[in-house]
Amino acid sequence: MTLEALHKLTPAHISLCGWSMTDKRAELLGAKVINVREKIVGDHVVANEKLKQGVTLLEEEPFIRQLEESYKPTHCTYCFTLLKSNMMKCPNKLCKWSHNYCSLTCQRQHWWAEHKWLCAFPELKNTHRDVLFAFQGYIASRSRGKGTLPGLVSNIEFHTSKQVEEYRSRIKNGLLSKIFNLTDNVVESMVTIMGQIRCNTFAVTQTKTEQAYGSVVEGSYHIAVGRAIYLYASKFNHSCDPNALVLFGTNGCATHLKVNLVRQAEKGEELNISYGPLATKMVTELRRKKLYNDYFFECNCNACQKCDDATNMYQCIQCRGQKLYYRQDKCPSCNFIPNWHEISLDEEKAIKLVKEGLVEMDIEKFKQAMRITLKYFDKDSIQMSKLWDNMGRMYVTMGRLSEASKCIKASLTNVQKIFGKISVESAAEMLKLATIYWNRHV
């Protein structure tokens, strides 16, 4: 460490203990955390009373947060809000970090949370972002008298020895360790925090919409602008068919998290959110593999245990009545042996036809895709629902709202049969239908 760097250190750097920040503690509404030592279940959240659909279970601000590098020029470093023309910088004119803020409040909060320790050391800009995030976590934890993120699991025992050693090497061999003279105990605490971050991080998302034909919303998608740790929200277990939904930015602050109940819950019923893949978006085998790789647990939720998983059931092309799993050897009713290679090629062809149909506004390509889909799937399947949905998008783009509403109605009918009338999927289709109806009458 250079003499210049040594002169920049303060007593706070030496103790690595954060000062108390503005900390609005969250509170679960109508629910409670059940603390258990059993690793398979872990801490989880249950309803304290009978809860109605739509109630808010939790509102929470992040314990620590980190904006993605690519969004730093356009978003506030602290609250992740899209910046306007009157953005602020760090008041230190010698600061070389590329931080922008939407307000003086955000600038000050970020100063106490992290930037106070790093402002004077621009040479740390190239430090691995995971190490900087873990360092922020250590400072925040010390401000509460803890050495690691309070109350969160790390599952470090399920990481491979190579992964753990990689975490340790990034911290110990980096410039951060040399400047702040991190002790072995601090390094090990940060290794644990990196494990906690891996298992408990929320991707903070914002919605982007595409528009066509005036004000009709054609489609929307989510982008992850950063990541954050929420101490209470992390207590919710995962389900591929959750009864609660995580929302961001509902109060104007992009990092503000809210958990809403999407269907009625009985007293004592566990409340779940989705950590990523939903049963409607990914087949069971791939979902479970992704969850294990990302979070180190094998999902055994109801959606994963269902034998009649709507997303990966085919129908026998010979007897037309029996449902088949992907790569099932033969039909148990008629002993027909499916050609799964041919089926996969046909599915890829149908997907290609839909994409071309959307680009070229060609209804004939949609009809070809529909014939292929009906060959292998039931008319009430989720695959047909997706096809109707894409046809609706095409008609909206063409300005043919009457045909678009018929397609979305067909998609909604299928979705309600598969997932129920009170489900996230049904709500999404009803919103599309309502948007089309509204635009037909304005």
Description of the molecule:
The structure is a single chain. With 442 residues, the protein is of the alpha+beta class. The chain folds into two domains: 1-274, SET domain (Beta-clip-like, Beta Complex); 309-441, Tetratricopeptide repeat domain (Serine Threonine Protein Phosphatase 5, Tetratricopeptide repeat), CATH 1.25.40. It is built from 14 helices and twelve strands. It has helices at residues 3-8, 11-15, 104-118, 129-142, 161-172, 175-180, 184-200, 284-295, 302-305, 340-360, 363-376, 382-398, 401-419, 424-440; strands at 31-34, 44-47, 56-60, 64-67, 202-212, 216-229, 237-238, 244-248, 257-261, 270-273, 313-315, 323-325. A four-stranded mixed β-sheet has the order 1-2-10-7, with no helix packed on it. A hairpin with an 8-residue loop joins strand 8 and strand 9. It is globular and about 70 Å long.
Features:
single chain, 442 residues, alpha+beta, Beta-clip-like, 4-stranded mixed sheet, 12 strands, transferase, histone deacetylase binding, SET_dom, methyltransferase activity
What's the quick description here?
By secondary structure, this protein is α+β, with helices and mostly antiparallel strands. It is built from 14 helices and 12 strands. The chain has 2 domains: 1-274, SET domain (Beta-clip-like, Beta Complex), CATH 2.170.270; 309-441, Tetratricopeptide repeat domain (Serine Threonine Protein Phosphatase 5, Tetratricopeptide repeat), CATH 1.25.40.
CATH class of the largest domain: Mainly Beta
CATH topology of the largest domain: Beta-clip-like
Please, what is the CATH homologous superfamily of the largest domain? SET domain
Q: What's the oligomerization state? A: single chain
Calculate Rg over CA atoms.
25 Å
Largest sheet: 4 strands, mixed
Tell me the series of helices and strands, N- to C-terminal.
HHEEEEHHHHHEEEEEEHHEEHHHHH
